[in-house]
């Protein structure tokens, strides 16, 4: 496995963490506005959080919207994400629909990466990874804990599981209850990177006290960070301009 993942000339896992911004519009017209405005901010990647889209249960509408987003942002690596309500997303859909949606996104030729949640049936995860890889689409294999920060060993074990299953970019987002929890996430990230990871990983501690984890990925081992454009897609995301400045500052100090 490669220590980096290259998507449309963006090398994830090398140099400063790459900046991703999420599109969170509820309607096609909101999404168009967001996508057009995003260009000026020049993120490295864009994520479409399809769970925010009010027509997400209509596959055809989703594919149409995907086509529009892709046409507006032809050169940026695009991540397709349906974040389930149990992991902090906007909606819950059936497993069958979740699989169909992700398979369709992977086969559409319109996205570069799909985000698959690790906490699905293992067989379903394997099916989605295979479907993505058959279409030369990468997989972020993700887990989100909006209620707390698991112990360091557990964070590492989830990231290792995501790697073993074939996720190209294992990811975990956790919620800190205290600054000590932020240290746990950072320590787990560092240990995963140093001892177990053979590919880039993505980690973050959310909310205010976790912000440091969104800035210091180059030091501790997280290869990608989510910044906010107008509306954050998760608590603790900072504005992309400030984020870029801080990432550059930390990079220069190394
Ligand atoms: O998984 C992630 C990370 C995230 O939850 C964050 O905390 O920045 C934001 C989500 O949009 C994305 O899918």
UniProtKB/TrEMBL annotation:
Pfam families: DHquinase_I (PF01487). CDD domains: DHQase_I. PANTHER family: 3-DEHYDROQUINATE DEHYDRATASE (PTHR43699:SF1). GO terms for biological process: 3,4-dihydroxybenzoate biosynthetic process; amino acid biosynthetic process; aromatic amino acid family biosynthetic process; chorismate biosynthetic process. It is an enzyme of class 4 (lyase). InterPro entries: 3-dehydroquinate_DH_AS, Aldolase_TIM, DHquinase_I, Type-I_3-dehydroquinase. Homodimer. Involved in the third step of the chorismate pathway, which leads to the biosynthesis of aromatic amino acids. Catalyzes the cis-dehydration of 3-dehydroquinate (DHQ) and introduces the first double bond of the aromatic ring to yield 3-dehydroshikimate. It comes from the Bacteria. 3-dehydroquinate binds at residues 22, 47-49, 83, 214, 233, 237. It catalyses: 3-dehydroquinate = 3-dehydroshikimate + H2O. Belongs to the type-I 3-dehydroquinase family. The lineage of its organism: Bacteria, Bacillati, Bacillota, Bacilli, Bacillales. It comes from Paenibacillus albidus. This is 3-dehydroquinate dehydratase. Pathway: Metabolic intermediate biosynthesis; chorismate biosynthesis; chorismate from D-erythrose 4-phosphate and phosphoenolpyruvate: step 3/7. Keywords: Amino-acid biosynthesis, Aromatic amino acid biosynthesis, Lyase, Schiff base. The keyword Cytoplasm does not apply. The gene is aroD.
């Amino acid at each position: 496995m490669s220590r980096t993942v290259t998507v449309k000339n963006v090398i994830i896992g090398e140099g400063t963490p790459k900046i991703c911004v999420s599109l969170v519009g509820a309607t096609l017209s909101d999404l168009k506005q967001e996508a057009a405005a995003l260009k000026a901010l020049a993120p490295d990647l864009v994520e479409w959080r399809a769970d925010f889209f009010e027509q997400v249960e209509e596959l055809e509408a989703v594919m149409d919207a995907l086509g529009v987003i892709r046409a507006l942002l032809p050169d940026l690596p695009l991540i397709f994400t349906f974040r389930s309500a149990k992991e902090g997303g906007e909606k819950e859909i059936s497993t069958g629909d979740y699989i169909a949606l992700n398979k369709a996104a992977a086969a559409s030729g319109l996205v570069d990466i799909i985000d698959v949640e690790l906490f699905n049936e293992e067989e379903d995860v394997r099916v989605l990874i295979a479907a993505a890889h058959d279409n030369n689409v990468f997989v972020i294999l993700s887990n989100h804990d909006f209620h707390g920060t698991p112990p360091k060993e557990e964070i590492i074990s989830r990231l290792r599981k995501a790697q073993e299953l074939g996720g190209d970019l294992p990811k975990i987002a956790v919620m800190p209850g205290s600054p000590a929890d932020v240290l746990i996430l950072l320590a787990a990230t560092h240990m995963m990177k140093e001892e177990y990871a053979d590919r880039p990983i993505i980690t973050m501690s959310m909310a205010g006290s976790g912000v440091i984890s969104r800035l210091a990925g180059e030091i501790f081992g997280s290869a990608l960070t989510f910044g906010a454009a107008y509306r954050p897609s998760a608590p603790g995301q900072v504005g992309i301009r400030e984020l870029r400045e801080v990432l550059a500052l930390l990079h220069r100090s190394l």
